[in-house]
Amino acid sequence: MIVARIIEEQRKTTQSGRAQEGCWTLEFERQQPQRADPLTGWNGSGDTPTQVRLRFDSKDEALAYATRKGLTVHVVPAPPVTMKIQAYADNFR
Predict the structure, then answer these.
(1) Within a domain: 42
(2) Where does it localize (predicted)?
(3) What is the CATH number of the domain that holds 20?
(4) Average pLDDT, the chain
C-alpha cells in the first residue's frame, strides 16, 4: 500500500511575497530503505515515487486526489508562526 504525506507549504524566510502561500504538497513516503551504491558510495534505492511532488491549491484538492488514487495519507499542517518582537537595542544587553 502506498503511503503519502500532505504537507502545508510555508513561506520561505527569504521571500516577502505571498504568491504561493497556502499551497499543499503531496509527497510519497519511502517504501524501500536506502542503500549505499558500491561504485560511487552515494545512497539510493529503486524507490522512484519519492522523487514525485504534487502541488495543490487547497488541502481538499490534495485529499480528493489521494482518495481517487487509493492512497493512505498523513496530513502535516504547518506549525504556527510565532514572531519575537525585539528592539535593536536588545542585541547589546
Answers:
(1) no
(2) Membrane
(3) 3.30.160
(4) 84
